[in-house]
Design a protein that fits this description.
The chain is built from 6 helices and 3 strands; from the N terminus they run αααβαβαβα. The protein has helices at 2-10, 12-31, 48-60, 75-86, 112-118, 137-151; strands at 65-71, 91-95, 124-131. By secondary structure, it is α+β, with helices and mostly antiparallel strands. It has a 3-stranded antiparallel β-sheet with strand order 1-3-2.
Length: 152
């Protein structure tokens, strides 16, 4: 092992040049690789979870739902984020505690099950985003990117 280490140290410039040369095609590969975030496209249609997904969409229009967690965000900022997300194309509805009670009401006044669902002990809160068309999976990637821009 020491012999190998000495070989590397003696040829450090060669190794650095090789690393840079190998980095060039990896950048092109990373830029040219499409990432499909929707695991459902890989599952067979007769799988129980896919059948359940179909029922959720057909019966309740709830198959395409995302949950966004934000940490230590003030109520006005959370309301602005909610409003911004509602403006994203393809977003049907964004649900937060402001849909149940007035935002000036302390969260402790919420029923305990709703309070536990939307808030945790470390200052994080959750928004539920419902999309309007789950069949257009490729557009969900664009929506996710738009949501990410709003979160930043």
């Amino acid at each position: 092992m020491e012999h190998f280490a000495r070989w590397i140290v003696k040829r450090r410039k060669l190794i650095l040049v090789l690393a840079v040369l190998l980095l060039i095609p990896s950048v092109f590969g990373a830029l040219g690789t499409y990432i499909n975030y929707d695991i459902l496209t890989y599952l067979p249609k007769d799988l129980d979870s896919m059948i359940g997904e179909t029922y959720l969409e057909d019966d309740f229009n709830m198959a395409s739902v995302s949950m966004i967690t934000v940490e230590n965000m003030s109520t006005p900022d959370t309301l602005k984020l909610k409003s911004d997300l509602e403006g994203v194309e393809g977003v049907q509805k964004v649900m937060w505690t402001s849909d149940f009670i007035d935002v000036t009401t302390p969260k402790e006044m919420l029923p305990s099950d709703i309070q536990k669902f939307f808030y945790n002990d470390s200052g994080a809160t959750m928004l539920i985003v419902q999309f309007d068309a789950p069949e257009r999976r490729c557009q969900n990637d664009e929506r996710a990117e738009a949501n990410q821009e709003h979160l930043e």
